[in-house]
Amino acid sequence: MPAIGVVFVVLGLLSVANGGWMLAHAPTWYDSMPGVTDVGPYNGHFVRDIGLAYAVSGVGFVWCAFNLRRCWPVVVGQALWATGHAVLHVLDMFAGRLPLTHWIVDAPGVLLPGLVLGLLAMPAVWRIVNPQARAAHDATAT
User: Fold this and answer.
1) What residues make up the domain containing 68?
2) Is 73:90 a contact under the CB 8 Å cutoff?
3) Would you give the DSSP letter of residue 46?
4) Are 29 and 91 in contact (CB under 8 A)?
């Protein structure tokens, strides 16, 4: 499996695990995740809604890992979710809804995934990291 496939499996498993935790134990997830209490009071329904989004996203990542030739539209959807999530956090910091130091907490789980997936959604980058997409592109370009 190409490296990007391995990355998608890891992201998928982490996303499904996080989403499952949010769905099954929303109060524990809310109290345990660094920085989450900064965004407002606990709302179990909202945590479970977001947990469902993470679980579905994780399934999408795993599907992508085994369908690299045709998964780019799913990658774009993943990028829209992750990049939008990251942009929302940055905007909240600049608007004063989150402390400016929150970027330290957000960097590994929100900002970095948004940046990486945003880059992967660019066709030129996607062809570089995905040998199957590059081969399909080269075949249609000739």
Assistant:
1) 3-141
2) no
3) H
4) no
The residue type found at 57 is S
Place of tokens 């592109």: 137
What is the number of other CB atoms lying within 10 angstroms of the CB of residue 142?
A: 5
Angle at alpha carbon of residue 3, lines to 109 and 116, rounded to 5°: 35
Please give the helix or strand (H or E) that residue 5 lies within, else none. helix 3-24
Domain count, the chain: 1
The answer to whether the beta carbons of residues 126 and 133 sit under 8 Å apart is yes
List pLDDT tens digits, range 41-99. 999 999 999 999 999 999 999 999 999 999 999 999 999 999 999 999 999 999 999 99
Q: Which residues contact 141 (CB under 8 A, 6 or more apart)?
A: none
Give the whole-angstrom CA distance, residue 103 versus residue 40. 17
User: Is the CB of residue 69 less than 8 Å from the CB of residue 136?
Assistant: yes
Q: CA 84, 42, 17, 48: dihedral to nearest 10 degrees?
A: -80
Enter the pTM of the model: 0.87
Residue 2 token pair: 């190409």
